[in-house]
Design goal:
The chain is α+β, with helices and mostly antiparallel strands. The protein is 57% helix and 7% strand. The chain is built from 26 helices and nine strands. The strands form three sheets. Strands 3-4-5-9-6 form a five-stranded mixed β-sheet, with helices on both faces. A hairpin with a 2-residue loop joins strand 4 and strand 5 (398-408). The longest helix has 33 residues, at 289-321. The protein starts with 18 loop residues before the first helix and ends with a helix.
Length: 673
């Protein structure tokens, strides 16, 4: 039987990939890539952009695509066998890419290209790609020698293992928890969430209602469940996942965090940085840890008075109307939902009835088609789960890109939402045009019975957010691998297109297209929309401080070597500085903070707020010129989405906006002006 991971077909054969395919395929592709690296660094290959692309570019892109498919399945269709096969090949893959990134002879070839007369004739995208490659060689240890180089490589390999293990522990701790509640305990929990919990218990032949820590199950209980003891039980389980206070000692991430942080600081020192935060910021827009800390603290100072008012109002309401004189953190979501219902006379559950998934998707597709002059059509393809859909984007009958859509939570699937690339746009050395393909993944509640899946308004904004990333990847017109789509975009600017798309979810003209009541088929009433808009910045002070708490903890942890030894004390200190809500001593949120320990956001979590400033300012152009203004949409497409990483993000922003970003729009959008 042929190995699907060795196929050169345009799309991965996801349904055909088995754990036993992984090791032999990756071994062969690694051997091919090794041979290509040897050829690229030999005298046989000239110091020429096209020559290196044809030898090394083709082989490493093929390896990356196959390994990307394996990594994707590991995240969305995890099984013990797949996990074992993934982990068995992970060290060799890490070793190759580390070695390639620090190869002195290859570095010398690229330096020679940059210094040659031919460099002046390279197009703008190639010049940028070359600049970024030279920077990345330095950050990948290409200038290290002897033992330092060997140690750097060992750090990369061990760090990859630890990040994977961290992620596994979070997944196992999330999947591993179950509480079988009685119907009485679920008083107040929405009927669809109860039905899903009952179905989950029945599938196991058990009585009661199976409650898990997956968000589509966890959140409705915390938000609507009237049983305070049940809320406390679930909250405690959720915030102690993968910690020493969790269910199983073997899932505890404490030692992993400590070792990972020590390795990161050692890596930074080898590269000549004072700390890992400095190393992490080298390829980002922000210039230093001090600048980031100042940005976060300035925002915290502006948000804190609003947050204090939010909390005071919540406590007063909880005491007077709910009989909760001593408000605890597991009461906050419940009390907040009740306060919102009382103040604005609507509930999230009421709104959910209007956002049926098929209608939301159709509305989203209509917006994309209208604004960016493309057509979205469903297409057949091999997928990893029966619920996954596949689509293509066409413009004037020509293929622009394709994407997979995996929207529902299930066991074996990593929590959260993300966009990942299957392949990037590339004018291939063989002479063919490769179009981009993306994966868009969310964890929404599944349809129940014959009813379509219902989304909260937050779910809708999450979907639009991930599509923003997807459009950034899919609509690029850049043909160079290193700077096509999201590649080469500074990490703290990469959230601009995603956060930009969220704004559509607050436009009346758009919301009418997104809604179709699950029973009556009616669109969302204007009166209800007006209430939602009035409530848009409900507790925005508290929400802003929560994001700043995560970002400040992340930046300080990576900027202060040794702080991992007193991890909890550091987090407590950060909370003391910026938070107004007192967190229980048993809270171990950091132990499931996958963004910074397993997800690429190390010393980079601040980028959500940084990019929010950019996206709010970008959106303000649409507010002035019209949400569906064709000229504004075309300008955004050309200056932000199509250019990808082919120029610095600030240059792209200024090309669109005509000036540098300003904070005013962000504060206004969040009701803190």
């Amino acid at each position: 039987m042929s190995n699907p991971l060795l196929s050169t077909a345009a799309l991965p054969a996801f349904a055909s990939i088995r754990p036993e395919h992984i090791q032999p395929a990756i071994a062969q592709l690694l051997a091919d890539a090794d041979a290509a690296l040897a050829l690229a660094t030999s005298a046989q290959t000239p110091a020429d952009y096209d020559a290196l692309s044809a030898t090394l570019g083709v082989a490493t892109e093929r390896l990356g695509a196959a390994w990307g498919a394996v990594g994707h399945l590991n995240a969305v269709a995890n099984t013990p066998e797949l996990r074992e096969a993934y982990n068995a090949s992970l060290p060799a893959v890490t070793e190759f890419f580390t070695r390639q990134g620090s190869d002195e002879a290859l570095y010398a070839k690229y330096k020679a290209i940059a210094q040659s007369p031919a460099a002046a004739g390279l197009n703008a995208a190639r010049k940028q790609a070359l600049k970024l490659w030279l920077r990345d060689f330095v950050l990948s240890g290409a200038e290290l020698q002897g033992e330092a180089k060997q140690r750097f490589a060992a750090i990369q390999e061990r760090s990859a293992e630890l990040a994977q293990k961290f992620s596994e522990h979070v997944l196992d701790a999330t999947d591993g928890y179950a509480y079988y509640a009685t119907q009485e305990e679920l008083q107040g929990v929405p009927a669809d969430a109860q039905a899903a919990a009952r179905a989950a218990a029945e599938a196991e032949g058990k009585d009661g209602y199976k409650l898990t820590l997956h968000f589509p199950c966890y959140l409705p209980v915390m938000q609507y469940g009237e049983n305070r003891a049940l809320r406390e039980r679930l909250y405690t389980a959720y915030v102690t996942r993968a910690s020493e206070l969790g269910e199983k000692p073997e899932w505890d991430n404490t030692a992993i965090i400590q070792e990972l942080m020590q390795l990161r600081q050692e890596e930074a020192a080898l590269l000549g940085f004072k700390n890992y935060a400095e190393a992490s910021l080298a390829p980002k827009m922000a210039s230093s840890p001090a600048q980031v800390l100042e940005f976060l603290r300035d925002l915290a100072q502006r948000a804190k008075p609003f947050a204090e008012q939010d909390l005071a109002e919540l406590k007063a309401f909880a005491a007077k109307d709910l009989g909760l004189a001593n408000l605890q953190v597991w009461d906050n979501a419940f009390a907040s939902e009740k306060l919102k219902e009382a103040r604005y006379a609507f509930s999230d559950q009421e709104v959910r009835q209007y956002f049926t998934l098929p209608r939301v998707l159709q509305g989203l597709f209509d917006i994309i088609e209208r604004l960016f002059n493309v057509k979205i059509v469903e297409q057949a393809a091999e997928v990893w789960h029966e619920s996954v859909k596949f689509y293509r984007l066409d413009r004037k009958g020509e293929l622009v890109g394709q994407f997979y859509l995996d929207l529902y939570a299930r066991p074996g699937k990593r929590p959260g939402a993300w966009m990942d690339e299957v392949r990037s746009r590339w004018a291939r050395p063989e002479g063919t045009q490769q179009t981009p393909v993306a994966q868009l993944v969310c964890n929404f509640s599944s349809p129940q019975g014959d009813k379509p899946a219902l989304l909260s308004h937050d779910d809708v904004t999450t979907l639009f957010h991930e599509f923003g990333h997807g459009l950034h990847h899919l609509l690029t017109q850049v043909n160079e691998l290193g700077v096509s789509g999201i590649s080469g975009v500074e990490w703290d600017a990469v959230e601009l297109p995603s956060q930009f798309m969220e704004n559509f979810c607050w436009e009346w003209e758009v919301v009418q297209q997104l809604t179709h009541h699950v029973d009556s088929g009616a669109t969302l009433p204007r009166e209800l929309f007006d209430k939602m808009t009035a409530a848009k910045n409900f507790q925005s002070g508290l929400q802003t401080l929560r994001q700043i708490e995560f970002a400040l903890f992340d930046m300080r942890l990576h900027a202060e070597p040794g702080s991992e030894e007193t991890l909890q004390a550091l987090l407590d200190e950060v909370r003391q500085e910026v938070s107004v809500i007192r967190t229980p001593a048993f809270n171990r949120t950091q132990h499931s903070f996958s963004h910074i320990f397993a997800g690429g956001y190390s010393a980079g979590y601040y980028s959500y707020k940084w990019a929010e400033l950019l996206s709010a300012d970008a959106w303000s152009a649409f507010e002035v010129e019209g949400v569906f203004n064709a000229a504004t949409g075309a300008r955004y497409l050309q200056n932000i989405l199509e250019v990808g990483g082919s120029r610095d993000a600030m240059e792209s922003f200024k090309a669109f906006r005509g000036r540098e970003p300003q904070i005013d729009a962000l504060l206004r959008h969040q009701g803190m002006a």
